[in-house]
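Lab meeting, item 3. Inverse folding demo.
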């Protein structure tokens, strides 16, 4: 385990379009919320990490648009650094700043307004500009390739993926922050509009606006606060090749390696038996069973069976995405930190109607970045 705890957290509700707030206003909202949750003031924060992306923000050095709003200019300016990636990567970076010994507290803030950009054009930009970008490939097309490869490798079906959508959209009915929530049937998912074979409309996460923030504190500070700290028991990040053709898309070795390292740090030997709840980055329905395989929750190729089993009840064999997951709200960059916040709420026992049964000793949160889950970050939280 580490000596770092999450002592405060906040997230906005996720909507298709937050035309009532700009980037800075959303960041100010979650910064104030996280400070209130921790019982701290801005003067108690000595390091800031902002997570943003120039392509999604539509401006260069996008982080500069929110530095005042998150409080980094307080008392003439505090140390601030930026991350262009998923919010979980910002969390890892913030932890490293504290573990360096230079800081005691860190505020990690992340924002995105998907409504203000063209998702396909933006995600086309993450591919090689000579060989693959001119083909027009983007996030959905790449995901369709991965889904098809996964299906063909292990005889997994589109119906297996549909069970994931049914479960997560149903779980979202208990989450006041979710954007898409509904009671659905497998037949409705299968009948939804084809987007990129084998993916259909209800296999895709929505375009969302939102922001999130967490406050990290060293044990020296966390033990003195009235708020129950949620300890980072283990964390790891791994990445693999950028070119899709250099990878077997039916596997995710970066997630496999990151999870094993996080488990080792947390002292977990049997993840299926020891982890009480999982919050996965499921931007597409097929991702949940594929990621669960690489996390060690079932044998290779058995993710489809686990998806069907998990859809039979809210808790399933191991509760996965009781919040509704990314399929129910997908503010890019924010979504990974939202998984961390949801996992922390489960550990605290403060997840409301989406709280799983029994005490939560270990909760797993997960974030991704890059095409088809090129990079993964796994976080293990506990009391």
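The presenter then showed the designed sequence:
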């Amino acid at each position: 385990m580490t000596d770092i705890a999450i002592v405060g957290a906040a997230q906005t509700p996720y909507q298709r379009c937050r035309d009532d707030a700009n980037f800075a206003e959303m960041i100010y909202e979650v910064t104030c919320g996280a400070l209130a949750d921790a019982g701290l003031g801005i003067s108690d924060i000595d390091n800031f990490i902002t997570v943003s992306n120039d392509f999604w923000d539509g401006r260069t050095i996008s982080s500069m648009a929110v530095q005042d709003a998150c409080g980094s200019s307080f008392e003439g300016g505090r140390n601030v650094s930026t991350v262009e990636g998923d919010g979980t990567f910002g969390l890892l970076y913030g932890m490293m700043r504290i573990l360096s010994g230079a800081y005691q507290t860190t505020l990690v803030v992340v924002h995105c307004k998907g409504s203000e950009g063209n998702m396909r054009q933006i995600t086309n930009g993450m591919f090689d500009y000579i060989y693959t970008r001119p083909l027009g490939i983007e996030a959905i097309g790449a995901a369709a390739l991965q889904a098809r490869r996964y299906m063909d490798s292990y005889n997994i079906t589109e119906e297996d993926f549909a069970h994931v959508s049914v479960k997560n959209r149903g779980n979202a009915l208990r989450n006041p922050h979710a954007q898409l929530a509904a009671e659905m049937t497998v037949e409705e998912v299968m009948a939804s509009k084809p987007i990129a074979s084998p993916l259909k409309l209800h296999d895709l996460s929505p375009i969302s606006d939102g922001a999130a923030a967490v406050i990290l504190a060293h044990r020296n500070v966390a033990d003195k606060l009235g708020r129950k700290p949620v300890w980072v028991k283990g964390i790891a990040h791994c990445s693999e090749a950028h070119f899709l053709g250099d990878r077997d898309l039916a596997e995710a070795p970066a997630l496999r390696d990151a999870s094993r390292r996080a488990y080792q740090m947390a002292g977990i030997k049997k993840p299926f038996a020891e982890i009480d709840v999982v919050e996965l980055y499921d931007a597409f329905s097929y991702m949940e069973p594929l990621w669960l395989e690489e996390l060690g929750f079932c044998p290779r190729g058995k993710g489809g069976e686990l998806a069907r089993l998990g859809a039979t009840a809210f808790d399933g064999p191991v509760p996965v995405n009781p919040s509704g997951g990314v399929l129910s709200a997908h503010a890019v960059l924010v979504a990974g930190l939202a998984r961390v916040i949801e996992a922390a709420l489960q550990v605290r026992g403060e997840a409301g109607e989406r709280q799983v049964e029994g005490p939560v000793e270990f909760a797993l949160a997960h974030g991704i970045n890059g095409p088809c889950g090129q990079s993964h970050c796994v976080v293990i939280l506990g009391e």
